[in-house]
Amino acid sequence: MSTALQKRNRSIITSASLKIKKLNAETVTAIATGFLKRIGHKSGVKPKRVSLEEGAYIVEFEMKKLMAIVRIDAETHEIKEYEIQSKGEETSFISISPKMIAVIFGVSTAVYVTLYFVLPMFGF
What's the whole-model pTM score? Predict the structure, then answer.
């Protein structure tokens, strides 16, 4: 038994195929958004700012409770680094939510009704 091996012609790489497309803000944002989605941040990713600093594009994203910064090399199109952190919004000393207002209103109503009917029983 003989086996015949065929050599495949390998395509020659020309300088035209090596030409790298220049990045702009739109393509950098698409690269960074795709990256964030691949690492698990699928919803609520909103690009906030894109800037070019020292040969790298910096893309800032705003998410629900987080903020992400992705740095992409302008020449190689590689993601060099990223950082995900909490927004760091300043909250007031006492944060009042609608749920907390409802609880306080319910407790105060219960205390008022209880005292209104209990105090006359004791003669107050």
Answer: 0.55
The pLDDT tens digits of the residues spanning 100-122 come to 999 999 999 999 998 888 888 88
Q: Among residues 79, 66, 73, which one has the least CA distance to residue 38? A: 79
Three-class SS state of 47: strand
CA 111, 116, 117: angle at the middle one, nearest 5?
Answer: 105
**Tokens for 105?**
């209103």
Nearest Cα to 63, choosing from 39, 47, 82? 47
Pair of tokens at residue 61: 């994203």
DSSP 8-state symbol, 4: -
Query: What gap in Å lies between CA 52 and CA 76, rounded to an integer?
Result: 14
